[in-house]
Amino acid sequence: MRTITHQSILAGGRYGELSIDDGEAQIAQSLYRFMLRLRMCEEALSREYHPADEMRCPVHFCIGQEAVPAALSALLTRDDYLFSHHRSHGYYLAKGAPLPAMFAELYGKETGANAGRAGSQDISYPSANFHSGAILAGATAIAVGAALGFQLRNERRVAVAGFGESATDEGVFWESVSYAALRKLPVVFVCENNNYSVFSPQLKRQARDNISERVATFGMKSLPLFGNDVMLVYRALRSAIADARDGRGPTFVEAYTYRWSGHYGPASDDLVRYRSVEELEAWKDNCPIGLLGAAMSARNLLSDEQKAALIKEIDVEIAEAFQFAKSSPFPRAGDWGTMNFSDSSPVADALLTVVDVRTFDAEQAIVQAKGY
Q1: Over the stretch 192-214, which tens digit does the pLDDT of each residue have?
Q2: For the domain that residue 217 is a member of, what is the CATH number?
């Protein structure tokens, strides 16, 4: 297993290993467009958040972390499931969910992806099989459950869990890894290791920067890599998703990356001084969009005119999304019952009702299974 850490990445300076192999020109162009679109969306939302204060939720931006969702956008089918953490926008777009509905959700509008009730941290788009959540390691356990369902029904679907290294501070992550490896479930764990849990670096929370090594001891394929090399990420996830789909079991991919923005935005939190200016600038020098763009230009796959045309096209799309969100109505007050219980799951809903303790037989015989 290749040794890679945040320290080794910083010591390496400007990354020079990104390559576009023969036959990858079209995918490189697709990945570049996705990353540029995501970056421009995040920057536009960041600029608009203040001073208008019209967005109705905290927002966790993924500026600098565009490579993983870009790769997933090119690899997952509509039938596959994608679960993510609270830094959700890239994953949302990776599943082809509509941009206007995402913007409207942040504004708390009825036309939002979840009718204005989920906000950024818990945004979902069920018809595209995408769900995010603010529970730190929730994506890992839920993805395992979905993958188990695919396996039991002999479906060629794949579940992907996207999360940060902070999720590995939670016990449920390791339980998920253990069970997925044991059952050879069709699930891919993608850890975007950006080093920080709010203001706390990984090595102040864990004894070693070796998550991939620890996961491998559970009998799971495990791969650490430089997460800002989108072509490398794409190839790794292509192999992992193919293995999961073809019954060869799960994979853990640890993509070392970095968020440029604060933990949540848009305001900077660097005044806390939990990271240095030099560290941030070093990662900006290894911008995933810049690295791919340079490689594409060197191979005559991206001209200044093409880039300008892309920016103009995306600017129009973003302006239309803002107009849609701002002109949409707020949701009307609804019935709390139907907002919390679904008619599609009557058995589950029935189990959530209050049990009448008078029906409990306190004198019933206790049967102890043998061996206990």
Answers
A1: 999 999 999 998 999 889 999 99
A2: 3.40.50.970
